[in-house]
Amino acid sequence: MWGAILGVLALVLWFASSGSPGESSSGGQEGSRDSHVGAGSTLRAFFSSEPPATGDAALRIRGTVRNARGPVAGARVFASGVVAGESLSAMPCRLGELEDPERSILDCASSFRLSGLVNERTGDASVLARATSEDDGSFSLEGLKAGHYALWVESPEGVGMRQDVPAGAEGVELMLGEGVRMSGLVSTEERVPVAGVLVTAIFTAHSRFFETVTDATGHYRLGPLPRGEYVLLVSKAGLLPMHTTFTAYGRELARKFVMYHPRRISGQVLAAGAPAAGVNVSTWVHEEQTARAVLTDAAGRFSLEGLALSTHEVVAMREELWASSRVDFNTAEPARFLVERKDVTLELEPVVNVTGIVRDEAGRPIEGAQVELTEVDEKEEEEEQDEDSYSIPVSAVGTDEEGRYQVGPARPGRLRLEVMHPRYEEASHEAVFQPGTRTVDFVLERAEGDGAEGEEEEEDEPKAPREPRPMLVGEVVDELGAPVSQAEVSVWPEAGTWRGGQLDRTLTDAKGHFSFSAPSEGRYRIVAEFAQDDVTHAAVRVVEVVGKGDTHVRLRFEPGQVVSGVVVDTRGQPVEGAQVQLRSALRTQFYHHGRPVRSWRGNQQTGPDGRFTFQSVSGEQLELVVAKEDYVLACAEQEDGRIALPVKAGERELRVVLLRAATATGRFVQKDGSPVTAFVLKDNLWREEDGHFTVPIRCNGTLQLEFIIPDEVQVPGPRRIRRSVSVREEVDTDLGVIVLDGT
């Protein structure tokens, strides 16, 4: 009861003390309102009271708040704790009746589910102790029970947090950083800004809420936020909620949202041409992971409301009658969608359901057997089928502990039942089924070599302990020593180059940790890289793997610096719309017909002035990758064949010259003029009926071409020829016919 009263009071005080929407703050810092420290002096006073100690809560946590210059006085420090099954980060992921304890609800919940929890103030981590740092930066959090806590610190100097601090700890250092400010625009699908949208950032490792509301122009600002992983949720009555995930690292981060109106599907259900009343009509709502169902009225009409903008399978069922229709909201215009579909008619027809029991040869029920029901097209069965052809089951289910199953509905006619279990031989039954519920039982034979009958005896035999597998483990931290989540960590031979050699890669977890199965003994380079929007950080360490024990490594990102530049053409004119990426030079690169293929992560796009800016960059062995359709990097700026510009340590201003892409084209033929239809050129396998090829021109001078005939291609003459042709940058060249003549 008291919790509800305090929650209402907090909301009232917040609205009373804050200005217009979007101007809420935490500790006087514009644009954020977190659920623990609300905006305005009234709320700050309300939350500054020390939570009462309860029971045996007699432990404390003591330490010092610091920044890069030393101890910080007057910083607010508080400890929060999660409650198993109650805090979002401690709620297991549930999909229907299935539970995945390895993931939290934040990993799998729909926007609908998260919105409901946030609006009810459910799952927020509780603040259990507060303190203010003294002149020497020291603090003491009192009245804590035994356990581990997250410590948060906020000050005009910045923000910070530290996870998994045990009660009773002494000498804890809390480092203040500048934090991350999140901003963006929320609009409707008509591109109209939406005011009054609740924007919630949830720190995923500890389910702390940071909130604000969009202003009259649909804009919002949150922060500063501690670095880490977040779920970002937007919700407002009358619009469908949306959420995404992000990693807070750079000083500024922008995310836009387009919110959609709820959709409605309405129509009529008929049986033998007449309206059918009392029929269950449903559709599976993927966003909510549940079914939405209604009953038809006396006129057979129904209406399914609050649906997302997606394709829905609408199903009508009554006893052994069934109908379905796939419904979407598309229009003739790709970017416009209907708000309602009123034209859906479902005609009930008799269907087939099949039930039965799956047993073994001894008559015992088999649990967990997969039973699939497939409709057989008799016309297709009469025709010769490809070996790869297959039919998609209309229904599939696993048997229960009694071996029972029920599949359907399906249209009457020829149907095939197939039963599969890893310990048994597959079984099937195909027949013509009439409408109604039919019973088909199965007896499965034990698979050869399964050995399950001797399991009990084998379990009693002592097993030799397995020697633990050696691991390469470590952590990635920022310049303050705080963990960096979602950093990509890769393993390379010490002598590896950009051309390849990556042995393994993974992402750091919420605590910045990573692990690999250790490679064989030797020296390796471990590369950590974090790239997001206009932020790129890289760190490299050389480690030596010796013996059978674990190898530990810690990689630290240096403070980020601003790196800017301009992209121009050969006439010095700015190139707009070029994609610019900063990355580790060790990252591999793949080519398709001479063009680089890559995923753009951590990139910028040049504006009308051709300029780009990365707000936070650190690391050695970086390179700048620039791409724009119909452009290539100037030959003078290429190095060792890379389509990238090396970035020297300390460089802050870059200039990149792009050329208009040019190509050399021709036909590869035999002496008699017939085309060579398959050949290798520039490391690409060409298969062209007329022998046509196209290669990029990257530099003035001589273009070296080597044609290789694969072993499986039978043509007279040599298997390899070389040609040299003179080409110019930005000038397309027709090479005519290249003859396989051995000269």
Fold and architecture overview:
Helix content is 6%, strand content 50%. It has five domains: 2-183 and 193-252, no CATH class; 263-350, Immunoglobulin-like; 357-377 and 393-447, Carboxypeptidase-like, regulatory domain (Immunoglobulin-like, Sandwich); 483-660, Immunoglobulin-like (Sandwich); 662-739, Immunoglobulin-like (Sandwich). Strand 11 and strand 12 form a beta hairpin. With 743 residues, it is mainly beta. The termini are far apart. The strands form 15 sheets. Strands 22, 23, 24, 25, 26, 27, 28 and 29 form an eight-stranded mixed beta sheet that branches. An eight-stranded mixed beta sheet has the order 40-39-42-43-50-45-54-52, with no helix packed on it. Helix 1 packs antiparallel against helix 2 (41-48). The radius of gyration is 33 Å and the shape is globular. The chain is built from six helices and 61 strands.
- Strand proportion, as a percent range, falls in over 45%
Which value, in Å, is the CA radius of gyration? 33 Å
Q: How many β-strand runs?
A: 61
Count of domains: 5
Provide the residue-averaged pLDDT: 83
Tally of alpha and pi helices:
6
**Low-pLDDT residue spans:** 1-55, 454-459, 588-600
Proportion of residues in helical segments: under 10%
Structural class: mainly beta
The largest β sheet comes out as:
8 strands, mixed
Q: Which overall shape is indicated by the principal axes computed on the Cα atoms? A: globular
